Amino acid sequence: MTWLLLAEAGVPEGGLFDLDATLPLMAVQVVLLTFLLxxxxxxxxxxxxxxxxxxxxxxxxxxxxxxxxxxRLEADLQDQLRGARQAAQAAIVEAEQxxxxxxxxxxxxxxxxxxxxxxxxxxxxxxQRESAQAQLMSQVDxxxxxxxxxxxxx
Length: 154
Prior knowledge:
The chain has two helices and no strands. The protein has about 150 residues and is an all-alpha fold.
């Protein structure tokens, strides 16, 4: 209980809300602390945050530009690929037509050569047939002459 008496004896009148020099001193401390925190902590942190936001905004703008550039390049490449495919298809069609033309020419040439060979063979056969016929006729004439001579001699 003595400690209660000692505690009450040390407290001046008015208690918690005494308006003496401590209130202005506390106000000065709060203002000084606010000024110190603002100059030592909040401004540098705010500057870092602003720099970071600027960096992020710049990075996003660069990324958007690069994305647009990539889209343009992709569209150009798609157009080039489409053109290359069409050119390749045209080259294939042209090559097929050339092969077909060469095939027909070779076929016509082979047919013409076959016809020439067949005609030559036919002529040779005809010549040989006529030659054989002429020989047979001469032999028939000789045999006829011999038969007639034997008949007349007999």
